Amino acid sequence: MDHVLLTVALLALLAAAVRDVAARTIPHAACATLAAVGLGLRFAEGTALAALAAALLVLAAGIALWHVGCWGGGDAKLLAAAALAVPPSGVPGLLLATALAGGALAAGYLFAARLAAAAPPLAPAPRGTGLLRRALRAERHRLRRRGPLPYGVAIAAGAAFSLLASVTITP
Question: Could you read off the pLDDT of 55-69 as tens digits, one per residue?
Answer without folding.
Answer: 999 999 999 999 999
